[in-house]
Amino acid sequence: MQAQSQTPPDGTGQAEYNPIEWALTFGTVYAGFADAANHFPDQPVFEVLPETAAAYGIHAGSMSYRQLSERIWHLSESYYACGLQHGDRVGLLFENRPVFLEHWLALNQLGVSIVPISAEMRMAELTYLIGHSEIRMALALESHQGLLREAAGRAGRQVPVIGIGDPLPQLGQGHAGSIGRPSMPGLDTECALLYTSGTTGQPKGCVLSNEYFLFAGGWYLALGGLCTVGEGCERLITPLPLNHMNALACSTMAMLLSGGCIIQLDRFHPATWWQSVRQSRATIVHYLGVMPSMLMTDAAQASDRDHQVRFGFGAGVDKRLHAPFEERFGFPLIEAWAMTETGVGACVIAHQEPRHIGKACFGKPDPRVQVRLVDDEGQDVAVGTPGQMLVRAAGENPARGFFRHYLKDEAATAEAWQGGWFHTGDVVQADEQGYLYFIDRKKNVIRRSGENIAAVEVETVLRRHPAVREVAVAATPDPVRGDEVLACVVLKDDWLQGGPEGLPAAALAEVLTRHCLSELAYFKAPGWVAFVKALPLTLTNKIQRGQMKQIAAALPGQPDCFDTRALKKREAL
Q1: For the stretch 342-374, what's the b/e string if a residue is b when 16 or more beta carbons lie within 10 angstroms of its beta carbon?
Q2: What is the torsional sign of CA 491, 496, 502, 507?
Q3: Which residues contact 429 (CB under 8 A, 6 or more apart)?
Q4: Chain Cα centroid distance, residue 408
Q5: pLDDT at position 112, please?
Q6: Strands (DSSP E) found in 289-342
Q7: What's the CA gap between 442 and 426, in Å, rounded?
Q8: Side-chain half-sphere CA neighbours of 13 within 13 A
């Protein structure tokens, strides 16, 4: 492998070697993995810690690149024989289990795209996802298969729902023998469809190609500086979900292309985090901003630096805790900015000194990335003035490394790319040296513990309850989660006194929260419910989102605003 070489593979040394271009030569994610398996056959590709094994009811231990390669080949043969075709989509609901990786690579070998499905999704979300994505099959945990079948029925689609090890259905004309294709998958082939919360109701489906993922892996290996990645030796631990861009495109691809080992946790467990880090011998950590905040609440220990971690990669660390965390635990937290839509095609990262720790700085763009900061009229703002960040890749292709488009939504894609720049919706400030500092989110998206939540999606579900006449949802600051969901509810007249059952206001707030919990992932449900007489509206009866943000920040602790955060628990079906 030449991922870390600074000279071409022929060793002539006549030109600088580019890991991104090297990664793109593979054409598919599977081919990139196969190259690593050829160079590092006996290295572990993933390891399941005992804690994760117990949570999932699976075996602890590791699997080598050679072993995974053999499993992938057999899976691919089975999928090919059942009739899956280049261009099909298959839903995967395996949470963070290793089988997710096995099936993704097996399907990718055939040119079949995956649609990762969060286990937190409930009926309304699943019905939309299945109908919109038009998946041809769903592979899921037994606990969620009934829910998926019912959602498929509501979506009016006949979708086989298959468990691990179950016989595959015959989807059409099967194929025996080799996996040849008249049209072979390549860089432009759809690799995954990731759904991200938008601001107009239903989530948008981001179509991501093989190029998107290979570009991400090559970019990571090219970083150097504080984020230097070695070949066949790194061990990366992450609790982030595989239905998100960070875990699927950044951590997984960086390890697959460099022959590293992925330690994928079921989720973040603050009480046992350092035990997992030490037991896994992790050299790299991926984090969300909420993680350092939680870890810093524990008393300092003599063992705080007893680990092998060289750097953490993530975003959103509390600027007041950034320097104290690094001093206490002995490794840098590398802040970066990216979106599902941009991939790493416009990623900005503070992996070189000076990092301006404690100022919400996420670095400055490298020459591959162009950035503008603009006001509400689209005019460039002065240095030191906050503005919406617009990004694009330098060169002839401004979308290089980005998502391809929003599925079935040409208008939203065109709006996002208005004027040839991708509009991020994030408000950022630049200094004289070009360093960028995160200020706020322009879009009405609530970011709770790393999850993007569309206010409109929550509002849609709340309006279905018979008690609700009008509702507006906004973010309110939370000391642990960053943001929490707050719902301002205007009750119908016949519910002003608690409705037919005469419920007290606190009980009615709980009823509304449980209503959301039955339809949405737990983290999207309101953590605060405030009963108000009216909402701030424009002359055209649209919610004044800016005013709602101010109101939401002031409501917790006030009369008629009820704390329902204790109801928001991750629960198995």
Answers
A1: bbbbbbbbbbeeebbbeebbbbbbeebbebbbb
A2: positive
A3: 373, 384, 385, 386, 387, 436, 437, 439
A4: 21
A5: 97
A6: 311-315, 333-339
A7: 5
A8: 0
* DSSP-assigned beta bridge partners for residue 175: none
Whole-angstrom distance, CA of residue 428 vs CA of residue 373: 7
Residue with tokens 């009480």: 271
> Mean pLDDT over all residues of the chain?
92
| DSSP secondary structure, 133-178, as one string | HT-SEEEE-HHHHHHHHHHHHHTT----EE-TTPPPP--SS---S-
Q: State the amino acid at position 307 in one-letter form.
A: H
Number of H helices, E strands in the chain: 17, 25
pLDDT at 180 over 60: no
| pLDDT band at 526; cut points 50, 70, 90 | very high
Residues ≥6 apart with Cβ < 8 Å to 412: 198, 200, 204, 406
* pLDDT single digits (tens) 16-59: 779 999 999 999 999 999 999 999 999 999 999 999 999 999 99
pLDDT in tens, 48-104: 999 999 999 999 999 999 999 999 999 999 999 999 999 999 999 999 999 999 999
Contacts of 133 by beta carbon, 8 Å cutoff, 6+ apart:
89, 91, 115, 193, 205, 407
Distance of CA 188 to the CA centre of its chain: 21
Number of other residues whose CB lies within 10 A of the CB of residue 339: 19
Q: What are the φ and ψ backbone dihedral angles of 87, each rounded to 5 degrees?
A: 105, -10
Q: What is the model's pTM?
A: 0.86
